[in-house]
C-alpha cells in the first residue's frame, strides 16, 4: 500500500490564533462523528499519519473552516482541532490559515472545490480501500498520476466539474491518492450523506 497522506505539500502560512466560530466547529464535529465511526476518517497506526478531513464554508468569501492536520485519530473534536483558511493561491501552492492548529494537508484541494461553485458549502474527504477499489473509474476519477495537495489536483477537479457528473452528484475518486474519495454539497450534511450513502 502506498498511502500518500498527511503531509503538507503546499506553502503553509499558519498564524496561531483562537478557535473558529463555535457553531461551525460544532457542525463539523457532528458530521465527522459518523464518518469516524464508519472508519472513513481515522489514523494509519503503521504509518503514524491521520486520514480524512472535512470543511465548511465560512461566510460569503473565500474563507472556510477545516480539520486541523493530523487530527484523524480523534474520536471527538472541539474548536481546538480546526483551522480557518483565510486565503489561498492555488497556482502558487500557498494556503493561509489561522487557529489553534495548522490546516489540513488537503486544504488546497478543498479550496479548489469551493472555487468551482459559490453554492458549495461543505466538503468531506475520506479514505476507504474497499470503496476506492470498487468506485475508481466508475465515478468521476482524477488522473492516477496526480497526487493530493497540489495545484495539479486542483485543476483535475476543475476538469471533472466541467466534463463529468461530478458537478451534479458531488462525489469523486482520487486515483492518484490511494483510498481517497471526496464529496461536496450545498451543506456539510449533504456532503457527508453523499459519502455515507456510497455502496460498499
The strands making up the biggest β-sheet line up spatially as 1-7-6-5-4-8-11-10-9
Main β-sheet description: 9 strands, mixed
Q: Level of helix content?
A: 25-40%
Percentage of residues in strands: 25-35%
Mean pLDDT: 92
Number of domains: 1
Q: Count the helices. How many? A: 6
Q: What structural class should be given to the helix and strand makeup? A: alpha+beta
Which ranges are low-confidence, i.e. pLDDT below 50, for 5 or more consecutive residues? 1-7
**Terminal-residue CA separation:** 20 Å
In total, the number of strands is: 11
Q: What is the level 1 CATH name? A: Alpha Beta
* CATH H-level superfamily title: Class II aldolase/adducin N-terminal domain
Q: In terms of quaternary structure, what is this?
A: single chain
Q: Rg to the nearest angstrom?
A: 15 Å
Break the fold down into its secondary structure elements and pairings.
Elements: E1 11-16, H1 22-37, E2 42-44, E3 49-51, E4 53-57, E5 64-67, E6 82-89, E7 94-99, H2 107-116, E8 122-127, H3 129-135, E9 141-142, H4 151-163, H5 166-169, E10 171-174, E11 180-185, H6 188-196
Parallel strand pairs: 1-7, 9-10
Antiparallel strand pairs: 2-3, 4-5, 4-8, 5-6, 6-7, 8-11, 10-11
